[in-house]
Specification:
alpha/beta, Signal recognition particle alu RNA binding heterodimer, srp9/1, 2,3-Dihydroxybiphenyl 1,2-Dioxygenase, domain 1, 2 domains, 5 helices, 8 strands, 27% strand
């Protein structure tokens, strides 16, 4: 098997899908800017998938490479691993939240599962800045506010923070 590593990235997330790898990759690149499919492979004579069916898809989201495999129903995603998206604005949080959660599930504290079962964290970088404040009272207030949220709201975090 050829190497999965690119010169710019040593570790590549590997995503196992039943048979929706290409569909998922196209969905993800439609959501994130600066994204593309870089390689598509098909099963040959030996399988295990049907000859000609998509076996794998390599794609990039915002410069991050991913490898998606159509491996069958043996494994599914779990929230024990998620993709963390560092957002700059509330508008970015709102857009990604709505698009990625469509057909999936909205969870607490900025977490969601997309329609393929993959977990994402849609988090504004302002949250990390406030949580890391030197004033423990401010950071505790922000943490308590965040724990009440589903989608993270920067204005509500700022209110709790005291801005």
């Amino acid at each position: 098997m050829e190497t999965l590593k690119s010169p710019k990235q040593k570790i590549t997330p590997f995503l196992w899908f039943n048979d929706q790898a290409e569909e998922a990759a196209k969905y993800y690149i439609s959501i994130f800017k600066n994204s593309k499919i870089t390689r598509l492979t098909h099963y040959g004579e030996v399988g295990p998938g049907p000859k000609g069916a998509v076996m794998s898809v390599v794609f990039e989201l915002e410069g991050q490479e991913f490898f998606a495999l159509n491996g069958g129903p043996q494994f599914t995603f779990t929230p024990a691993i998620s993709l963390f998206v560092d957002c700059q604005t509330q508008e970015e949080v709102d857009q990604l939240w709505e698009k990625l959660s469509s057909g999936g599930r909205k969870d607490r504290c900025g977490w969601l599962q997309d329609k393929y079962g993959l977990s994402w964290q849609i988090i504004p970088n302002a949250l990390g800045q406030m949580l890391n404040d030197k004033d423990p009272i401010k950071s505790k207030k922000v943490m308590n506010a965040m724990l009440q949220m589903t989608k993270i709201n920067i204005d509500q975090l700022k209110q709790a923070y005291g801005d």
